[in-house]
Amino acid sequence: MEADQPPTTQPTDSSGGQSVVVRLMTIDDIPAIYHLGERLFTARNAPNAHRTWDEYEVVGFFQTDCEFCFVAEDENETVVGFALGTVIEKHHSWNYGYLIWLGVRPDYQKTGIAQRLFRQLKPAMIDAGARIIMVDTDAENGASLRFFRKMGFNNSRQHVYLTMNVDEDRRRLEGRRKERIIRYTVDDHEGDRGDHG
Ligand SMILES: CC(C)(COP(=O)(O)OP(=O)(O)OC[C@H]1O[C@@H](n2cnc3c(N)ncnc32)[C@H](O)[C@@H]1OP(=O)(O)O)[C@@H](O)C(=O)NCCC(=O)NCCS
User: Fold this and answer.
1) How many A from CA of 91 to the centre of ligand 1?
2) What sign does the CA torsion over 45, 51, 56, 60 have?
3) Is 145 left (phi over 0), alpha (psi -120 to 50) or beta?
């Protein structure tokens, strides 16, 4: 391959009767990935992950990890799947690949698209020095668990997410901040009168 050629994309093949191409993400894919993720990572399907999915997440991956971000697009050049990952470089130990977001449009699921995305991502991570690839998913997400196992992931560990609702604290702090502003404003006015009166 010539040095200035773009990285190879996987050759077109057929998924669900449509030709789907897997290629590296470009800047133009950002809105489509974000909107597809909005459909997939809902509070119901992804109780924790949906909280961190937003447009800045996609932009961030594009800025810092675009060599580990792939999309699948159909014949109409519509994004129907994506995989966003990163490689964590550790100075004194192994590098880790981390596949963070993976999604396929529901009407294209079970046609091998996620598998093709992962087949592009894995060698990109290995090239970047990864010796272990990590993924995480909700314990109730049977489709993704079966998918990851089929891809060869094993050695699963339980991980517990805890949340704390701090909305009441936020309201209290906001109230105190407003009180302080009012107090300072009143003090300033009184100070002004003292100076001039
Ligand atoms: C998980 C997900 C990405 C799989 O994408 P996909 O393109 O449908 O997966 P593939 O067609 O490549 O499936 C490959 C293998 O994974 C397993 N698999 C995938 N989806 C499955 C499902 N719904 N039920 C059972 N097994 C499934 C199967 O073993 C399948 O091989 P097979 O078709 O030969 O049986 C997709 O279901 C999805 O987008 N889910 C919502 C988002 C999400 O949960 N992402 C993962 C966490 S970030």
Assistant:
1) 34
2) negative
3) alpha
Query: pTM for the full model?
Result: 0.85
Backbone angles phi, psi at 191, to 5 degrees: -60, -40
Mutate to test the pocket of ligand 1, among 18, 102, 147 (most ligand atoms within 8 A of CB): 147
Q: Which two tokens stand for residue 130?
A: 């990864």
Terminal-residue alpha carbon distance, the chain:
82
Helix or strand or coil: residue 46?
Answer: coil
Distance 39 CA to ligand 1 centre (A): 16
Quote the CA–CA distance of 148 and 142 in Å, as a whole number. 10
**Nearest-10 Cα torsion for 109, 52, 137, 41:** -30
90 or 172, which is more confident: 172
Question: Tokens standing for 160?
Answer: 């517990």
Collapsing DSSP to helix, strand or coil, 151 comes out as helix
Among candidate residues 144, 97, 146, 100, the one with its CA nearest the CA of residue 122: 97
10-151 sits in which CATH class?
alpha beta
The token duo for 35 is 């909107």
Give per-residue pLDDT as tens, 4-17: 434 444 444 545 55
Q: What angle in degrees, to the nearest 10, is found between the helix axes of 142-151 and 113-127? A: 50
Say how many C-beta atoms besides its own lie within 10 A of residue 106's C-beta.
11
